[in-house]
Structures are given as structure tokens and as C-alpha cells.
Amino acid sequence: MRVGELSRRTGVSVPTIKYYVREGILPAGQLTSPNQASYDETHVRRLRLIRALLDVGGLSVAAVREVLDAIGDPSRSVHKVLGAAHDHIAPGLGDVADAARDVAERQVAELIAARGWHVDAGNPAARSLAAALAALRRVGHEEFAELSLGAYADAAETIAAADLAYVARHTAREELVESAVIGTVLGDAVLTSLRRLAQVDASSRTYGERAGS
Amino acid sequence: MRVGELSRRTGVSVPTIKYYVREGILPAGQLTSPNQASYDETHVRRLRLIRALLDVGGLSVAAVREVLDAIGDPSRSVHKVLGAAHDHIAPGLGDVADAARDVAERQVAELIAARGWHVDAGNPAARSLAAALAALRRVGHEEFAELSLGAYADAAETIAAADLAYVARHTAREELVESAVIGTVLGDAVLTSLRRLAQVDASSRTYGERAGS
């Protein structure tokens, strides 16, 4: 197909498509004449992946390039590629070194040990969890870790099991990794939205106003 | 305390503190002389809340003002204030009207009905959930809704129950609402980080590399 049809199919403008080709995150089309290139279904799929990572994942173009390079590099193990993607998608919390941070880091280490999770304490997600718990402590919510963290960890395990089952349907490496990256990025949006809905429901039942209906 | 100590206690610079006062999101200190104001613990706590909403929640200063106004307005019910906060914290996904979107909206309506959730179909979180499911469909992950959505909804219910128990410890209205807002914003970061950790653990067990240790 020509670039105009690729644009219509994906909702991405022609100048933006050309920009992605220049940035090296979208392969160039096959030249059919000096001024015309032909694109195929792999371009449609790649463009949708790029838009998901940029718009939903909030990644920069440079981060998208790194994730796509990792997906396409057969020498990297699945586990390593997932790690590369996670590094870019991890929620970015400011790192302030203080007493709240020290306590939070200890709580994260204890949680990981208690759950028997196979993760390095230096994992970016462990750091961002400690940053979130420290931020809670600083605004007077030190009880959160004690009262709610266990339920959150239970929920995270439920989701991770579903994610793994979802991803493991694929046997081809590129499909598997792409599925995991997409699932991580879009799964966050799904989960955040569902949490809001379940909260609205709980708030409505407890604080008495029927939302809508 | 003077503004310099307020700055040290909270890690927020003096010019930024003055900016928040000008923007009307931080109450001015008590004037003790024409050029000097005195601040107290309510300012410390408010500043930490502002930083949590800005840095962790990713809200704009205008959105922070609306949420704080809602917290401070006794004529608004708890349920309504939570709704105001949610409107600003909902993940912002592009709204594209297409066939994928139509299917996703139907799936969300079915999920809400099946779960018996008391939420309006026009709820911002219902819209962002539909946007996320539509984005998954567009990148070829239409199976997600069928295979994984139930586990995600189970997890969301677990968390909402924990959130409600956490918030309901408070009886004072302002504390209760502040707790809910903080919990919603920072709870997202906690949950996203935990989901990553549980994924790393699951990936490590399945794809064979021990992360760290």
C-alpha cells in the first residue's frame, strides 16, 4: 500500500510516518519508484505498537527505539527484553534520600523476601515502589504499608499470573515479547481504570449516593 | 516557622512555595511583620499533599486547585469529591471513534453489569477502560478482554476493598477525603510497581533467569 493508505489505516499522519522512518523506529517502505514506497501489514502493526508505546505508555521516541531494538535482537533473552521494557515504563518518582525513604526500602526488601519473589532489590520497580511508599510516609500515610500493602501484593500476583498465561500462549519470540510489552503498558491503563471503577462502586455503597442510574 | 524552615522541612524551594501561595493552592502564612510570615504544620501537610498530586499524580496546578477546593468544600459529599479527584487522575487516553472502540465500550458495559458495580457508564474511568481495551484491539490483542479482564477485575475489587477499609478509619471528612485522594494517586504507583515485581518474578520462574541474587 502507499503511504496515504498506511496513514488512513492507522490514523497516523503522513509527516509523522516519515518522521518515524527518519528516527529509525519504523522500517522504510519498499521503493517502487524514485518517489514512491510501498508498505505492508508489518508497517501497520509496527505503527500501532509505536503509538501504543508513545500515547499509552508515555515513552519518548528514544525509549521506543530501545524497546523495539530489544524486541528485534535475538541475542537477548525474553527475560532481559522484558527488563529493558520495564526500565522505561516504570513510574518515574523523584528519588529523595531521607528517613522515610530508608524505612520504605526496608519494607520493600521485607515484602520481596516474605513473598519469595525472584527479583533483585535494585530492580527499577523495587525502587519506584520504595519511592511511592516513602511519599505516602511523608504525607502522613505510614500506616498504608502495614494495612494495605498485603492486599495490593495479592492483587499484583493475581494479575502477574494472568499476564504470564496471556503471554505464554505465544511461542514465537517476537510475538511473545511484543505481547508482554503491550500487555505491560496497556495493562496498566486497564488496571488503573478498573481500580477507579471498583472504588466508585465501593464509595457509592458506603457513602450512599448511587453514581448515575 | 518561617518560610526558610518550611522549605527545609518539605524540600520545596522558597520561590516555589511563594508561587503556590500566589496560585491560591497554599494558604498564605500569618503575617508577623510587613515582610515576614509564619507557617505551621497545616502548611507542611498541605505542601506535601500538593507535591504528591503534582509529582506522583501528574496533575497540573489547575487540577490540584480543583481537587483541593473540593476537599475543602463542606457542601460536597465525599462521593462527589472522590469523583472530582478521579476526573483529574484518570489515565488520559486518546479517544478515537472506530469499530474497536464500539466493541470495547460494549465490553465495559457488560463487565460493569456482570460485576454489579454501581457506576455510571459515562464515568471517566469507564471511558478510559474502553479506550485501553480499544487500543489493545487495534494492536491485535482483542483476546485480552476475553482471557485476562476477569483476573484484572478480581484484583481491582481486592484493592478497592482494601482502599475503602483504609479510608474508612477516618471519620473527619477532610481527613477521609484527603486519605482517599492520596491513596488513589499514590496507590496507582504502588500497584504499578508491585505488578512489575510480580511480573519479573513470574518471568524469572518461567523463562529461566534468576534476576539478581
TrEMBL record, chains A, B:
Keyword field contains DNA-binding: yes
One family name in Pfam for this protein: MerR_1
SUPFAM superfamilies: Putative DNA-binding domain (SSF46955)
Keywords: DNA-binding
GTP-binding listed as a keyword: no
Source species, domain of life: Bacteria
Matches recorded under Gene3D superfamilies: 1.10.1660.10
Protein name: MerR family transcriptional regulator
